[in-house]
TrEMBL record:
Domain RNA polymerase sigma-70 region: 23-88
Matches recorded under Pfam families: Sigma70_r2, Sigma70_r4_2
GO molecular function: DNA binding; sigma factor activity
UniProt family annotation: Belongs to the sigma-70 factor family. ECF subfamily.
Any one of the GO BP annotations: DNA-templated transcription initiation
Gene3D superfamilies noted in UniProt: 1.10.1740.10, Winged helix-like DNA-binding domain superfamily/Winged helix DNA-binding domain
InterPro entries cross-referenced by the UniProt entry: RNA_pol_sigma-70-like, RNA_pol_sigma-70_dom, RNA_pol_sigma70_r2, RNA_pol_sigma70_r4_t2, RNA_pol_sigma_r2, RNA_pol_sigma_r3/r4-like, WH-like_DNA-bd_sf
Organism: Natronobacillus azotifigens
Keyword Transcription in annotation: yes
Keywords: Sigma factor, Transcription, Transcription regulation
Protein's UniProt name: Sigma-70 family RNA polymerase sigma factor
Domain RNA polymerase sigma factor 70 region 4 type: 122-173
Length: 197
């Protein structure tokens, strides 16, 4: 039977290194998945996940026990990713990739793709093109299965702001993905006149 976070935290407060390792192992996959979806680079996500757990160790004494430990840890991850996007390391790295592939079925609903945790390169690249706060809200809702209220707490935003970010982000995703389909149609039918010109 898996130990609860609370009992592990109690052991950690009493100096148990083994309990610390169990706690990290228990939450590693969730934090790595969030970070990888946020930055889109496996090796960078790996390094950042290590840094997030180092921060967890540093601030674990400040965890009050109010609310789920995993949500407290996710908040550290959210802030760490925000810090990365503000850093010169990010500004110096070209993160925007062209969408090379396109949706096979444009009728497929964007929200359905996300709720199925669709791992398509196309969807991931489209999410990467969203503004940071919209991307953050979409990842937390559709990949971490968090409620609006919890996303608002983690991102220190009003619930109405989170809803707005989700709505605008979904609208932009739809445009990005549908544009990809039109480009594909252009390649298939090169003689067809481009209606946007």
């Amino acid at each position: 039977m898996q130990q609860s976070d609370e009992s592990l935290l109690e052991e950690i407060r009493n100096g148990s290194q083994a309990a610390m390792e169990v706690l990290v192992k228990k939450h590693y996959r969730t934090i790595f998945a969030y970070t990888y979806r946020k930055v889109g680079d496996y090796h960078l996500a790996y390094d950042m996940t290590q840094e997030i757990f180092i921060k967890m160790l540093k601030y674990i004494s400040s965890y009050s026990g109010q609310g789920k430990f995993q949500h407290w840890l996710l908040k550290i991850a959210v802030n760490h990713c925000r810090d990365y996007y503000r850093s010169s390391a990010y500004r110096n790295k070209n993160q925007i990739n062209e969408i090379n592939d396109h949706l096979k079925d444009e009728r497929e609903n964007i929200e359905d793709l996300l709720s199925k945790k669709h791992t398509s390169v196309k969807v991931k690249e489209a999410i990467d093109q969203l503004p940071v706060y919209q991307r953050e809200a979409i990842i937390l809702k559709y990949y971490q299965d968090l409620k609006i209220k919890k996303i608002a707490e983690l991102t220190e935003a009003k619930e109405s702001t989170v809803k707005s970010r989700l709505k605008q982000g979904m609208a932009k995703l739809k445009i990005i993905l549908m544009e990809g389909n039109e480009d594909k149609d252009e390649q298939i039918q090169p003689n067809r006149r481009n209606r946007y010109r």
